[in-house]
């Protein structure tokens, strides 16, 4: 007796860690939000551009081209000519490559926007994914800070267009040069102190979380948290710590007051710091002239995120309304977009400096914010009208297909039932599960008469909860009407309009 043949093992369906499947509702909400943002960018004169998902790894700027396996943080593979390629880590480095490669063909200043997926080969966690969408806007070839001021105002207009109320958001602006000036003033400028400066940056970035006293500890010897874990500090002395704290707390009642406070902190110890303060002053003047100094755009020295990457002004869109975090604490929602001036990125590919500034929106995070505010735009697609299949002969199927074509030509979302048509009740169940507003029914008798039955599924569902006897059922028959085939489209449009009116009236 031969051995029993083993059944082949079924392939297990499993989603890769750090990735998600997206539903129709999520896709439509994202597209609606991106459409609103795009309108703002277009209004400002920006044009779309698209770069591929893959770039040569050295072009991303984060890794050396001669690494044995440059896939730390990025997803990488080798091309057929043994060159390393990586899925893009952000949208800025690919844009810098695009500008450099097409420099002789593009019009400067080059004003572009693009939305797209980026990929991080990092350990996933709650709310932390390996694939997510960004929406960026950039200006290349404009050295003046008016380009930075415009970015800040465009970010403010974007928040407003999405329905976020004034007072619920602020665009905070700082300048890398000012902080460099503070670093020089306290003796940690230059390449020899790069690690110390990074520790100082990280300490300042914890201001919202730990407060001035916590930052003071991180600037000094270090800080021990509630669990007893110790974080080593930057090791600054007390006068240096006081100067850094004075810098991050320099925000005044308005831009002019903040500029004055920064001038006192930096003093005359750094020409670079003075240059940064002057740039912030110009931005404040431009913002005020355009009327955005009403709380929408604010000079704020506490913005340090990404300062090691940027070369001048930096800005961040922060949402100010309260949410409950995973620990049950009430906190402000926080940042949903950020950017700044990165004059060195394009010039990596060229023998000349190319000034550039831009910002990036975290699409998923912004969507979460809009959902918290009830501003997500709950406007799902109209579920399709379903044309039922009563008879399966080719003549009948041709009639059904003609109905579908007529309704689609009128712009009405429609589908012909594609499942097993034997059980008519199953077809109506399918339409109900789809949320279909109307079912189209034509049997052999209706076809002979040249008529078609139109069943108002929304009204029928409402009436079914009120019907208690046969007489009431017969009285409710207007939920299903018979019309000549020639009147099909007009009657469907009439019913859909009535349903829409009912929704608006909350019925």
Structure write-up:
The protein has 507 residues and is an alpha+beta fold. The protein folds into 2 domains: 24-373, BirA Bifunctional Protein, domain 2; 385-504, Rossmann fold, CATH 3.40.50. The chain is 39% helix and 20% strand. It has 16 helices and 18 strands. The protein has helices at residues 24-43, 92-101, 146-161, 176-185, 194-204, 207-219, 238-248, 255-266, 271-289, 363-373, 394-409, 424-433, 444-449, 457-464, 470-475, 488-504, and strands at 47-48, 54-56, 76-78, 84-87, 110-119, 131-140, 169-175, 222-224, 230-232, 297-299, 313-324, 330-341, 356-362, 385-387, 414-416, 438-441, 451-456, 480-484. The chain has an 8-stranded mixed β-sheet with strand order 1-5-6-13-12-11-7-10. Strands 15-14-16-17-18 form a 5-stranded mixed β-sheet. Strands 2-4-3 form a 3-stranded antiparallel β-sheet, with no helix packed on it. Strand 3 and strand 4 form a beta hairpin. Helix 1 crosses helix 3. The longest helix is centred in the first third of the chain and has 20 residues, at 24-43. The termini are far apart. 34% of the residues are buried. Residues 63-67 have low confidence and may be disordered.
């Amino acid at each position: 007796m031969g051995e029993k043949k083993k059944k082949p093992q079924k392939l297990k369906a499993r989603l890769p860690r750090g990735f998600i499947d997206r539903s129709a509702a999520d896709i439509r909400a994202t597209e609606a939000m991106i459409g609103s943002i795009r309108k703002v960018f277009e209004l400002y004169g920006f044009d779309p551009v698209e770069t591929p998902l893959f770039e040569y790894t050295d072009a991303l700027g984060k890794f050396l081209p001669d690494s044995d396996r440059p896939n730390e943080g990025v997803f990488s593979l080798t091309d057929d000519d043994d060159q390393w390629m990586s899925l893009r880590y952000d949208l800025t480095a690919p844009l810098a490559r695009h500008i450099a490669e097409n420099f002789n063909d593009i019009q400067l200043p080059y004003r572009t926007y693009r939305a797209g997926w980026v990929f991080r080969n990092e350990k996933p966690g709650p709310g932390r994914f390996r694939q997510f969408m960004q929406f960026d806007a950039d200006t290349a070839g404009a050295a003046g800070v008016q380009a930075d001021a415009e970015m800040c105002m465009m970010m403010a207009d974007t928040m407003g267009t999405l329905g976020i109320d004034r007072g619920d958001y602020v665009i905070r602006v700082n300048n890398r040069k000012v902080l460099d000036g503070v670093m020089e003033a306290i003796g940690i400028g230059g390449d020899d102190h790069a690690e110390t400066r990074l520790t100082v940056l990280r300490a300042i970035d914890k201001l919202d979380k730990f407060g001035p006293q916590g930052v003071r500890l991180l600037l000094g010897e270090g800080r021990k948290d509630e669990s007893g874990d110790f974080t080593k500090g930057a090791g600054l002395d007390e006068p240096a710590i006081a100067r850094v704290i004075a810098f991050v707390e320099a925000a005044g009642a308005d831009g002019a007051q903040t500029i004055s406070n920064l001038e006192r902190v930096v003093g005359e110890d750094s020409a670079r710091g003075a240059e940064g303060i002057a740039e912030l002053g110009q931005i404040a003047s431009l913002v005020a002239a355009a009327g955005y100094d009403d709380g929408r755009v604010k000079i704020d020295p506490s913005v340090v995120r990404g300062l090691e990457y940027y070369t001048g002004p930096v800005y961040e869109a922060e949402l100010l309304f309260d949410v409950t975090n995973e620990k049950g604490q009430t906190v402000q929602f926080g940042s949903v977009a950020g950017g700044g001036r990165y004059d060195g990125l394009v010039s990596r590919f060229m023998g000349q400096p190319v000034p550039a500034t831009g910002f990036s929106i975290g699409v998923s995070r912004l969507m979460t914010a809009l959902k918290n505010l009830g501003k997500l735009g709950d406007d799902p697609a109209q579920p399709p009208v379903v044309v039922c299949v009563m008879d399966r002969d080719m003549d009948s199927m041709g009639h059904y297909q003609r109905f579908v074509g007529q309704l689609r030509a009128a712009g009405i979302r429609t589908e012909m039932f594609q499942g097993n048509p034997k059980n008519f009740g199953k077809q109506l169940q399918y339409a109900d599960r789809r949320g279909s507003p109307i079912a189209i029914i034509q049997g052999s008798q209706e076809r002979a008469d040249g008529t078609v039955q139109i069943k108002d599924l929304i009204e029928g569902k409402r009436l079914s909860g009120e019907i208690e006897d046969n007489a009431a059922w017969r009285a409710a028959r207007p939920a299903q009407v018979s019309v000549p085939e020639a009147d099909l489209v007009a009657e469907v449009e009439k019913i859909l309009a009535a349903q829409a009116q009912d929704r608006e009236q909350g019925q």
